Each structure stands twice: as structure tokens, then as C-alpha cells.
């Protein structure tokens, strides 16, 4: 199959065809991936011992790039392997790379292979002659892309040879949140330095590009403020009662209820309560977050959705009341439950944004061939909107057939989040492509990279994101005369953010233009300076991280349940398996937890399978799940967020296992399991 390019694509591939490192900047729908296929084809044809890796940042993009782009054009001539965390081949990555001309994989798989020194799993950057980095604006800070490119830049600064050519692809590098041009220029230079690349865009063929990627018509569907919100007011009154239950110095620091700022405040407050072992503060903060979530949901979707969330939360806790604080919080909800339920079911006070959204959708779907995507902020929001669409008679009348699209994670909310992958994901996309579904309700997962057929309508509903996500979302409206609608409250935050994003989008273009105007020598000088600083910073950060890991010996670290402060184990009881799962090998630990319902994951793993959810016997806090390892032994696998750590330096609440201040030993099956088996009579 011939890989023909449009004139503007021909223009942007020239630097790469000369063997230079480059970032291609084209809007969503402009055909960046096709340009990358063309460059890859030419590279494989003209480079001795060529080997190409295409890196993506989301699992579903591996298969999409393989099936829709690379295989059709290159599959008959070259050996292509597509590998994601879902494939079983990932453990033989080194062997696969040797046997293939082109590998398409998630960046994490390459990163794991660079670290892993076992022969069949290990690869070096120098094994490749070209690295293609999709959605390359993520190559910054702590991202996996930047870990890989950090090694690359370090090798370059040390003048080590044989590094692969780099090709980055992006619809927008963004401004890094900067609102001044000089700072936006610095941000673009930083991305260029991280990718060791120039940034190229079309100069000669802009009109052709605009024809191929028409800009959707943007409309603001402005909604007047809710005049009366008795349900929301009642929630706020209950929150005030919780404020009064806490010491006055504490509640004075909290910002406005029903906002992201308030959420950030109570998250910090809960940590503070845990560190001071002040259960009253920690629990009040935890419950206030639930009420604030309900206010946010009430502001976005229906009152019943907000009520249902709270009701489920309190239902799950009522059997485990440990002290006066628990009794007060549970009692407060129980006393108000009936009234909240009545308020939530009164249509007179329903969210006016939903009425506006209904009009926008009805208008669009009068045409039975319409396709639309509705972007919402949270996974929970998408489910609430899905229920609303399906129970709305007017929307069913115009024959809306909706599906949900969210990222990885099964909702089982375990440490398996990374691995779990919605089995319906590709099904949903397929049904949307073929017209079985005509409305996708999605979180930001569909804003990036997904090949979704042209939409007539894209609605951003109650969303606050950055200019990159905004451009990607509007880029999904690709049909002729399509509409990009922002449903927002009059003078509300979404409106302000959307307008800021429009400004940042034009600022990004100006910043890129300024970078492109620099003379090659000035550009190289700036990039080189940034890279040298980056290498020094990386070495220092690595040293600090290692020092932090060694700060305490495992025996000095005690783990407490985060909700009831019960001491449950020491750092000596923990082991890590494959650098991913943290298990407790002390048989005594069993008496602290109850194993519950079976965890169901939508894929299987080589060495282990999931068991039941585990929770604190004392307070019911969920701790993780049991895993059956090598079909022989069942071990409790712990979520770090469910615990607080007590060390000689005080208490801490790490968010991730990599933040703990001691070295967790690697799991050694024979050594660590001897205590489990020592009482078996092996002579029988």
C-alpha cells in the first residue's frame, strides 16, 4: 500500500528525512501518525540494521497505531510487534526487539526493559535507530517519556555515540501554564531540549491544512445561575455542623464549599489529622470530602446522583462505628437522610445546566446521522450523565444511543488500576464507528490520540482543563459545519477557564513561532544549556531519592491503619514482587484483616491471580486484596494509601510506594515462604 502525504505533511517530514531529531506539530486530525509512518518507512528502507520503536502513552493506542496505521503500510515488508501491558509478550521484550524491525509499545514497557538486566527482557536505547514518541508534549517532569529521554540526553551530554534519531508528534506543546510570551517560549524550548529536537510545522500550506482540518464553530451555551438550590444549601448546613464539631482554628482555614479548593483543603486536613493521630479531625475531613463531592456532583449532574453517592458511603460504614466522632457523623446523615432524599427528588430545583445540555443534544440529534462526544470531568460524572441520558424521555425520542468511555481501571479501585483495562473500551469505539452508538460520554481519555470518526458536536460539560486538552477536544469535532459547545454557568469558572485557554492556544502558536525564528546556532546554544542543567538536576534528584530510600531500616518503620490508627505491621514484614506488588509475608498479619468479595480483573497475569478484597477487622477500611502467587501461596497485597507510616522522624502518609523512606526487600520465594511451610510434614 502506498503511503501518500498531503502537501503540508510533505513539508513537515523534511527535517526527519534528513536524519534530524524533530517534533511535528500538527492539529488533531492533521495526520501526524501518517507522517510518522512515512518517515518510518523511509528510515527502514535507507538505514542499515534499522530498528524502530513507536512509543505511546495509553494502552489502547498500541493496537490502534498497529492496526490502522503501521501494519497496513509496512506489515507486508517488515516484522512488526505490538506490545502493551496487556500482552503476555512484554516479559520477553528484549527477544522481541531483536526479532522485529519495528515495535509499537507503551513507554512504560520500554522503560521497564531499560532497567531490567535479565537478558531476554533487557534493551538499550542504542539498540534502536529511530524512536517515535506519540503525544510527545508529555515529555516533561516525572513522566515516563521524560525518564526515557532523560537517559538519552545524559548519554548525549556525555558524548556517547549511536543514539537513535528522535521523532516527536504533538497537537500542542502548550505553554506549561504560563501566560507571558517569554515564559511560554521557555516552556517550548524545554520540551525541545527534553526531546533533543527542533519543532516543525507547516508554513507554506496552512490553507490546505485548514481545509483538511476545519475548525468547529464554537458556541457558549450559557446557563443562568440556579436561583434556588435547597438541596445544596442543606448539604452546606450539614457541613457547617461538622465544622462546628471540630476545633474552631481548623474550620477557619477551609475555603469555599463546593469547590476544588475546598477539596484540596480537606485532603490536607485529613493527612494532618492522621499525622497527629487526631481521629476527630481525620474522620471529619474524610466525611467533608464526601459532602463536597456531593456538592460538585449537584453542580454538574442531578441531585439524585449526589444523594446516591452520599447514601452509599454512609451505608457502607454504619456497622463499624468506633467512637463518638463516628457516631456523630453517622447520626448527622441518618437524621437528615429523609429530608435530603425528598429535596433531591423535587424537579423544581433541578440543575439548569442539564436543561441546557438537553436542548443542545436535542437540536443536534434531530439529524439522525449525527455523532457527538460529551466530555465530563470524572468517571463518576460520565456514569451519572449516562444514567440521565438513558432515563430522559426527550433524548430517547430523538434516538440517542449512548456509550461510556473512560480510561484504565475497572472501578475495583485497587493497586491494579495500572493493569486493569476496560474490556468494553475497544467495543465501545467500534460501536461508535459503526453507528450502533451515536453519543460517547467520556473523560479526557478520548481527548488524546484516539481515532474516533468525525463528530458533528463536541460538548465540554462542567470541565476545567488546560489549553492542550481543550485543543484536543475541539479537534474531535471534524465533520463539516461541526459545533464545539461549552455548557457553562453565567460568569462561572468554566467560562473563565475556557477563555483563558483560547488565549493560551494563540500564545502557544506565538511561542513556537519565536522558537522557529531563532538562528540554528542560538537554538542549539539554548537547548544545550537546558540539557546540561537537566542532567545535573537528574543526578542530584537520583542521589536524594536513594538517600530517602535508605533513611530508615525496615524495622524502624511501623504501619498503622489510616482510619483507626491500629498498628498492624512493621517494614520488615513487607516484600515487593516484580517491583509492583507490595505484600505482607508475616502469617500473624492475617488476624488484622477480613477477606471479602472476589476481585475480578479483565485480564490474567503470568505469576499471580487476584483473591478477595481485604479490609481492616477493626474499622472496615479497605486495605487492598489477596493475591495468589504462582498458584501456591496466598498473600495480602497492600495499597499504601490505606496506611500511615510511623518512623523515628514522625508520621507520614505516602501517596505511592515509591515515596516510602526505607528499602522494601525483593520477595524471595524460598526464603520468605519457609515460615508458611515449616509446619508442614514434608516426609508424608
TrEMBL record:
SMART domains linked to this entry: DEXDc, HELICc
InterPro entries per UniProt: Helicase/UvrB_N (IPR006935), Helicase_ATP-bd (IPR014001), Helicase_C-like (IPR001650), P-loop_NTPase (IPR027417), RIG-I-like_C (IPR041204), RLR_C_sf (IPR038557), RLR_CTR (IPR021673), RLR_Helicase (IPR051363)
Subcellular location per the Swiss-Prot or TrEMBL entry: Cytoplasm
UniProt KW keywords: Antiviral defense, ATP-binding, Cytoplasm, Helicase, Hydrolase, Immunity, Innate immunity, Metal-binding, Nucleotide-binding, RNA-binding, Zinc
A biological process from GO: cytoplasmic pattern recognition receptor signaling pathway
Entries under SUPFAM superfamilies matching the protein: P-loop containing nucleoside triphosphate hydrolases (SSF52540)
Listed name of the protein: RNA helicase
Organism: Cyprinus carpio (Common carp)
